[in-house]
Every structure is written in structure tokens, then in C-alpha cells.
Automatic annotation (TrEMBL), chain A:
The keyword Cell membrane applies. The lineage of its organism: Bacteria, Bacillati, Bacillota, Bacilli, Lactobacillales. It comes from Limosilactobacillus avistercoris. This is Phosphate transport system permease protein PstA. It is found in: Cell membrane. The gene is pstA. SUPFAM superfamilies: MetI-like (SSF161098).
Automatic annotation (TrEMBL), chain B:
CDD domains: TM_PBP2 (cd06261). Part of the binding-protein-dependent transport system for phosphate; probably responsible for the translocation of the substrate across the membrane. Residues 80-290 form the ABC transmembrane type-1 domain. This is Phosphate transport system permease protein. It holds the Pfam family BPD_transp_1. It is found in: Cell membrane.
TrEMBL record, chain C:
Residues 7-246 form the ABC transporter domain. CDD domains: ABC_PstB_phosphate_transporter (cd03260). Pfam families: ABC_tran. It comes from Limosilactobacillus avistercoris. It comes from the Bacteria. GO terms for molecular function: ATP binding. Keywords: ATP-binding, Cell membrane, Membrane, Nucleotide-binding, Phosphate transport, Translocase, Transport. PROSITE patterns: ABC_TRANSPORTER_1, ABC_TRANSPORTER_2. Gene3D superfamilies: P-loop containing nucleotide triphosphate hydrolases (3.40.50.300). This is Phosphate ABC transporter ATP-binding protein.
Amino acid sequence: MRPERVDKIATGVILGLAGLVGLIILSLLIYILAMGIPHISWHFLTTNAESFTAGGGIRDQLFNSLYLVVLTLIVSVPLALCAAIYLSEYAPQNRWTRMLRLAIEVLSSLPSVVVGLFGYLVFVLQFGLDFSLLAGALALTILNLPILTRSCEDALRQVPYLQRQAGLGLGMSKWRVTTKIVLPAALPGIITGAILSAGRIFGEAAALIYTAGQSSSAISYTDWNPFSPTSFLNPMRPAETLAVHIWKVNSEGLVPDARAVSNGSAAVLIITILLFNLVARYVGHRIKQRLTK
Amino acid sequence: MDDLKKRLNQPSVESRQEWVGKLISYLAIILIGGLVGTILVFLTFKGVALFKNNGVSVWHFLSSTDWQPSHHHYGALPMIITSFSVTVLSGIVALPLALVVSIAITEMLPKKIYQFFQPLIELLVGIPSVVYGYLGLTVIVPYLRQLFGGTGFGILAASCVLFLMILPTMTSMTIDSLQAVPQKYRQASAGLGATRWQTISRVIIPSAKSGILTAMVFGMARAFGEALAVQMVIGNTTVIPKNLMESSATLTSVLTTGIGNTVMGTASNNALWSLALILLVMSLAFNLLMRLASKKGAK
Amino acid sequence: MQTSTALETKNLQVLYGEKHVAHDINLKFPKNKIIALIGASGSGKSTVLRSLNRMNDDFATVKGEINFHGVNINQPKVNVYRVRQQIGMVFQQPTPFPMSIYENVIYGLRLAGEKDRKVLDQRVEESLRQAALWDEVKDQLKASALALSGGQQQRLCIARTLAVRPEIILMDEPTSALDPVSTSQIEDTLVQLKEQFTIIMVTHNMQQASRSADWTAFMHQGHLIEFDETATIFMNPREKKTADYLSGKFG
């Protein structure tokens, strides 16, 4: 066969297959959204979940998911940032540094069930945190740390060496140069990374079913004392998140309207993650503008 | 001048800042390193308890097909086989399709289309696995039931779900590695009279090989470790499946359903931790494979 | 001893890993002069310059002595930050920080803890005047430094270095990124500055060396070939390699 003919056939096959795959995936995405969006209402978002009767909402699950993201970021961002500063600014090129990098890589490849089980073993049982938001946040921190450390390190490395040099040449300490010159310049990249990672942990379920738990206690949104057991801010209460809720309702749930609740929840999950991505994109776009100005 | 001499030899505010800063950042990285060490040690200890305390031999655990914790039969082979089956099946289907989509996007379609697809792929990468599992439960399982009869639950359904889950990730990684091939290779090949397909098959794919391989291993590692999405559609029967349509169970699905139903320290609980240890070892193996794949490209 | 020595190197060697990039450099930099380091690219001149205030600490192994006021500053126990405050550095590319002109100039002072507005104001004016930038920017001190032209930015960086009041200023090809007009402005500035400072400058531009430098050191493949008064080096070089380089036979 002449090469031109082969080229035509290959092009046709590739475009055809790619189009088919794209179509299937796109239609599944649209299917989920189309099934779920009609079920999303103010009532659905602001009502308590029901265990045995239809008509329950996802208020607590949605709040728990968001709160868990906030708690996780509070723990993981400073830790990941400091580790990234070490790797990008201080780490000597030696075997020990390579070991530490390997450790982070190993951490990033752990399946989330394994992380969840470790969290169960250590945070829930050993530390006596029981099933709680805090235990869940710590498990999510383990999942989040490697990704976040890498994105922070990338953001720090993007800052031209010239800027550091200028500071060092004035007799500033490296730490000062890092916090006063490098960090502000890398901030948008760090924020983008944090938002993207927030999207990822927002939908995590496997690491949570044995750490944050699979059920929620009754909570009050008017009780602002984080130490009160019924306060919505109390990090020591067990909390079912949105993603866990979908799994729970479908695998052992008893609610008659499981399909409707799951459809709505899945759509809410996807839309929230889309929002996270859009915000991250917007922030990233803003950096570009600032740099080219 | 002696004053200057003294000043040069004495620590200053800057020295203190440097010391503190170095300490803080070093502590953070040591904490992460220590965490990884702790995870490995804890899970290993829990994982070998079955063999040390309950007298089950490692070989029996890995080779017996009989998993009945209530009768003290701890054979993990059915789950191992199922886990590998769903991983390999989904990976084998996802690799060529991820490659095809990536080639179409980077080499054939106009750039504008990529700019439209990129956020979409990012979104698909970010969709939680539970949603893919739910999709499997409500769309794929009923469809398979209609097509082949039976319950619809099983390896095939799980593979389909995993395929959907890892395809976006693998595609986006493959796109990255194709885009990393320098433009001059394409021009040089075209300049020698090669058709587009010749350029793609003889120049671009070979030079992006390590990236494509890494993407595949990464996708399969994710598939192997996925728990809930698989658990929702696999049927959860701990026997060696006779065909792809029969209900079975993976390491992860047994873990998710089992941990809550056993008492810490008992043999049946220890057996679950041994399954977790297999998962851990496999994730390390996948990690090693990925290193090998990316090293191959560096040469 | 008509002129005292500002800085002296003894058997200075620089290694990048296994690679020797500077061998046994012995130089005595006279005070209140402009000294040029010249040589082809890869001759090690920038490497030597950066070693003088220990900017190479992270990248290279520097052996030998660097004596400053009787202290060998090339020792780990010496306070490297104070060394750099005494021996400042201006780089090839202008590197203003993304803040106002005023804040750029007093950046080093602020870090040293100076808060008195009067002192800061006075130092800004003094440094900008010394760097011959005052007249151009005195009405826009609060404007962003990034809005200045390349030549202005480089003079701002010089002012920023001067504001810390160092004794010695190291300059690594300070005009290579600039146009000819800005270059000659900076050269004029340097001549003014040597009354108070010692300036050690790397340049690949031989005219620049002959125009502004009092002393010139010629380096070739990591070795110091010749160090003498600029007039002698250019008119009457002792070494054949120097003569070859100056006549453009290599480099």
C-alpha cells in the first residue's frame, strides 16, 4: 500500500476512534448532570438527610465536605510549603535528599484505602480521635501532602534565580529572601495548586469511611462554640461527606429515593469540582497577566 | 577596624533567621519522611500478624482459593486474581484509546479544539471515583445485565468503571508527553517526505515512549488501588470468578466491606491487614515500574 | 605602599564538582580604584568575582584565602551576610524587586531594622544621587521600579547596593544587557563612585575596561595571566596570551 493511503486510513481510524471515545464520555457526563441537576434545589441543599424516608437533602454532607477541605488545607498547606521551601531552597544534592524525594513519591502512590486504613489505625484508634472530622482531615492531609508539596516546589522554582541573587547580594539571609521575595512571587502558583488539590480532596471517599466515619451526629448551625459537641464547627464529631454519602446510600442505604439523592449529590460534586477548577484557572490566568504587565 | 573584624566573625540577625528558617523547613520535610516510614512500618507490622500470631503460612495465604474468615480459611488468591484482572483489563483498553485521543488532539486537530478539550479533560480527571462507581452502578451494570444476562456485577463492570476513571488521567499524561516532543522532529520528518502517520508512528511515538509508558503504569496503579468505585459494581463474592460476568471481589473491595465488620486483633481482622499489605507492596512495585519507565526515556 | 589593599585573594581555587574552573588566583585589589576582570567566556572571571563575596557557596567549592580587613572571609564560621553587606554585588540583568523605587533603595536598610523615616529619606536621596538617578526619579519615588527603563533599573540596583554602604562593589557585566547610551551613563557613574568605593567589575567589553578601569586582570582558562595597571596591560602586556586576546586573536 502506498504511504499516502496508509496515512489516510490511519488518520480516519484515529479520528473516528477518538471521536467515539469523546462522545461516549461526554454523553456519560451529560447524563449524570442531566439526571442530577433537576433534583438540585434550595430544599435539597439545605435539608437534613433522611435515613428511611424520601425527600432528604444533603445539607450536612455538603457542609462536612467543605469543612473537611478547609481543615485539611489548614494542616497541609503550611507543612507542604515548608517542605517545598526546603526542597527548592536548601536541599543539598545528595543521597539523603534523594531519599526524602523518594519518600514523597511513595506517599503519592499509596492507594487512598491504604491511607484510610492507616488513619483508622493511628488517628482513630491509637490517638483516640474516634471517627471524627479531625481524623478525616489528617488522613486527607496524608493524601494531599505529596501533591501539594510538588506543586509548591514547582511554583517556587518558577521564580527566576536572578531575584534570589539580588536579595542574597544585599546580605539578606536565604530565609528572608525566600519569605520576602520568592514567596510573594510564587504565591499565585501556590494558591492555584492548593485550590486544585482542594478539588481532589473534596471528592475523596475511600480514605474517609474509616476516619471521618459514615454517619453524622445531629448538629446545630447556630452553635458557634467549636468545643460544644453539637456545634457544626466541632472537629471531633463524626461526619459523613458528600462522596461518602453517595457510596453509602447506594451500597447499604435504605432510603427509597436513593437514586434521586445520589443523582443530585453526584451533580453537586461535579459542579463543585468544576468551580474549583475554574477558580484555579482564573487565579493562574491572573498571574500571567501580572507577570506580563 | 577591629570592630569590623569582630562583626565579621559574629553571628547576626541574619544568621539567626537562617538557622530558624532552615530548621522549620527541615522539620517539615522530616515529618513527611517520618510519616512515610511510619506508614510502611505500621502496615507491615499489622500485615504480618496473621502469619506470626495466627499460624497461617504466607504461601497458603497467597495460593489458597478459599476465603472464609468465619471458618478460618484465609486464601487471598481469588481477590489477588480479580484485582489483577480488573487492572490489566482496564489498562489494556485504556492505553490505546488514551493514545488515540492524545494523537488526535495533539497531532491532527486544530489547536482551538485542544483549548476546548483541556478543561474538560481536567474536569474528568477531577471527578471523584465514587461518581464513576455510581455511574457504573446505574448505567453500566444494567446495560451489561441486558446484554449478557446474569446480574451485571463482576469483573467486566468493574473494568469498565476503572477504564472510565483512568482514561482521562492517562490521556492528559499522554498528551503532555506527546507535546514534549520537540517541534523540530516533526518538521525534520515532514521535510524528508514522510506522511503524517509515518511521522507519528516512527518519530513521535518512539520519542514519547517513556512518557506513554509512565502514563499507563500510573493509570493501572490507580486502578489497582481504587476501592469504592470497584466495590460498588464487582458484586463482592470472594470466589475465583469463572468468567468476566460473574460476581467477585478485589483486595480493596474486601477491605472496605470487611474492616468495619471485624474486631481488631482477631485472625479475621489480621487477614484483612494482610490484604492491605499486598496493596501496599503492589503500590511500591508500581512506583518502581514508573521509575523504570521514566528512566528509560532519560537515556 | 601608596594605595592600600581593599581585598586580597591567596591561592583562590574554585571547583564545580570535579571541574576546576579557577586555579591559584592571587590578586590584590587596590582601594578606591576600578578593577576590571577580563577574559574570554569560560575563563573563570565571573566565577572568581562571585566567590569574592561568597555568592558561590551553594554551587561550588572555593578553596584558598580571601582577606578582607585582615579576616579570611572564605571560612564557614565567618558571617556571610555581613560579608555581603560589606562587599555588595550588582548583577548582569537589572533585578529590581516588584515594589516602588523608594522601597527598592532602602530594602537592605529596612531589613537591617532601620525605621527612622528621616534616615531612610536621606539615604534614598544620597544613594540615588550617587548612582546618578536622582534627577530622573525624584518626583516618582513611589512609582513601581518595574516601570523604569533597563538602564534606569540597573542604576537603581546600584543605588540599592550603595544604600547598604558597602566598601566594595562587585559588578558582573553590569552593562551587558543595556544599550550604549545607558552603558556610558553607568560608566560615568562608576568613575564618580570610586572616590568612596572600590569597584571590581567583570566585563567582556575591552573598550569598557580600557575606558573605566584603573587596573585590569586578564584571565584565561581558569588561570590569572596578568594583573597590572590598565594602561600597561593594554599598551604593553608582558604575556603573549594577553596581547593575543586584546588583538582579537581568540575569545
